[in-house]
Every structure is written in structure tokens, then in C-alpha cells.
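@channel sequence for tomorrow's demo:
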Amino acid sequence: MITRYLTQNPCYQQGRKIAVKGLMLHSVGVPQPDPLVFIRIWDSPTYDRACVHGFIGRDECYVTLPVFERHGAAFRGWHGGGSSNNGYIGVEMCEPSTIRYTGGASFEVKDRAAAVAFVEKTTRRAVELFADLCRFHDLDPLADGVILSHAEGHQRGIASNHGDPDHLWRGLGMDYDMDRFRADVAAAMKGEEMVDIGALIAEMTDEQAYALVQKAQRYSESLPEPPWSQKEGHWKRATEAGIVDGKSPERPMKRDEVIAVLGRKELL
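C-alpha cells (generated this afternoon):
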């Protein structure tokens, strides 16, 4: 986490404070992965259109307005529009360079694997930052209205009409949404490890990866309401896609197929 306040931005210059009631997650809406590109542009006395509390890239997180200096309070930002600016800390996730917007929240994907890998990393860093913010400001991430996306803020009538970052996960076909994000923040606050499935099995042979999936299936079958095979539907979708037959595939599952099926640490 790097402190890089937008001291030249008119919003920072105003120095207005808010009582923090919640956190709002955004994504930048353009295929630009480097937070410093935005910071250099926004840190100007002539940039009076927006000012957020932080930017998240693949490998770094920049805090751009004071949010950790006083418990329960922060600088007021210009991020969500409407009344959300008066009570919410707003953070932007950068977006991968391998997408191209075609209009509104719609985009084309030039390299889906690279785009998904980038968004997985920025989302993970957002989870970590939001967990820190919730701890510092005594916020319950699972309470109603505490953590919202910009899209959810609009749905509640407190933010401008944007679809981020929900549109990004949805457009990339990722099995992720704000409910999952809030749950991950709550888990991070409890010190529960968020497992990087891709990194975990990168060194496995195909046979070892297949054995891991079999373990996951047995685990799910042992529960009255399996959170993996039923609630999230991973095994069902894998079966429908022909990756597995639902019982005992004839061939070992490949590593990329395992990544597509697995999702949570309780399976490991």
C-alpha cells in the first residue's frame, strides 16, 4: 500500500471530511492497468471532475485521499455522485489492457485469460484494502449497505448511473459478484487465507490436479448443502461442458480445467 495523495486536486484542496458509513468499489471504465496514469492526470488543480480515495493495480495499491488518519472519518471524495460521496470511501480498480470498450459497459476481450488473471489480482487487492478499511473504521462488511459497488449505489438511488465493477466480472464470464466480494472481505478480516488456486496447482501434474478435484467432489457430497457443487454450481457446469461426467472421468483433468472448476479454499 502506497500513500500518494492527490494534493493538487481541488477535492483534496477543499479538505472536507465525512463520517464513514461505508465503502464503494469502482473500476475505471477504460483499459488502463497502471494506477499512476490516473494519479498523474488527477493530481492537478485543473482536474475538477473526480477524486477517489484509492487506485488498485495488479501489483500495487495507492491511497490517494486520507482514509487512515482518523477513526470513523475520512476526506470527502468525488467518486460515486449523489449522496454517496457524503458517507462512502470510494476506490477504483484498474482494468486490463486486453479489453476494448464498444459502448457503455460493453467490451470486447482480446485475451480473456490475461484479462481474467489481471482482474483476479486487482479484486484480491481490493479485498485486502477493504478489510483494512473495515477494521480501521469498525465496519461490518456483511451489514446491509456497508460495502457497495457503484452499480449497487445507483440501484439504491445514492450514486450516478454506472455499472462498475459488476460489468467487468460479468463481461469476462467470471464466477464473481459483490456478494462474493463482501464475503471475501469478511473472511480476510478474520484472517482466513484466500487461496490462489492457479498458483496452488501450477506445479501439479495433471494426475495430481485430477485427484484434487476428486477430493473436492467427495467433500461436496459429504455436506447436506454442498457450497461447491450445488450453491456455486462449479461441478454442474463442468459436467454440462463435458469436462467431467459428474462421477468418474475417463481421463485425468488438466490443470486449466481444475482452475475453471475450483473456487474456494474449503475444497483444499
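heads up for whoever presents: The chain has eleven helices and ten strands.
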